[in-house]
Amino acid sequence: MKRFHVHVGVADIDQSIAFYSGLFGQEPSVTKPDYAKWMLEDPRVNFAISQKCGAAKGVEHLGLQVDDASELTEVYGRLEAAGRPVLEEGATTCCYANSEKSWISDPDGVVWEAFLTSGDATVYGSGPDIAQLASASAAPSACCAPQAAPAASSCCS
Q1: Fewest CB atoms within 10 A around its CB: which of 19, 93, 110, 119?
Q2: Mean pLDDT of residues grouped by 10 in the chain (157 residues)?
Q3: Domains detected in the chain
């Protein structure tokens, strides 16, 4: 069975863990110094937060997590059918987990991942530059005012 995934960048991991634990009525299933994850059943969602130096705050990406290789093949087929460029990352370590994953973004630059997790990892790991993936495929828009420059982050010295 598939599970919806949401990953949110936060400014203060401890405050955010307290907030989301209250909101969801349960503690995270995974807690690290820079990361937390709730595997919720109602609604069925993998909700993760992370505090990474210089990363944007708010929704980073969305995704579909699958339970087995056949579901992954099915979802990968849907990515291909969506008619957008797919970034096939393959086997990777990300978010303290070993996974097989691919990425795509919608016409407006919303980034999605499809993945199958095969086990835990001792490090956060890395992934593709999803901001670049989003901006490379986002359709330009003339209807909106220019965005303000992002505020400087105080987490880096």
Answers
A1: 119
A2: 92 96 96 97 94 86 93 92 90 89 88 91 82 63 40 38
A3: 3-128 (3.10.180.10)
The one-letter amino acid code at 122 reads T
Residues near 35 by beta carbon (within 8 Å), at least 6 away in sequence: 13, 48, 49, 50, 51, 95, 96, 124
Report d(CA 77, CA 49) in Å as an integer: 28
Any alpha helices (H) in 6-154, and if so which ranges?
13-24, 69-81, 130-137
Q: How far apart are CA 73 and CA 88, in angstroms?
A: 12
**pLDDT for res 136:** 63
Distance from CA of residue 47 to its chain's centroid?
Answer: 9
Q: With a threshold of 0.70, does the pTM exceed it?
A: yes
Query: Whole-angstrom Cα distance, residue 91 to residue 107?
Result: 26
- Beta pairing, strands 44-50 & 3-9: parallel
Query: According to the model, what pLDDT value does residue 10 have?
Result: 95
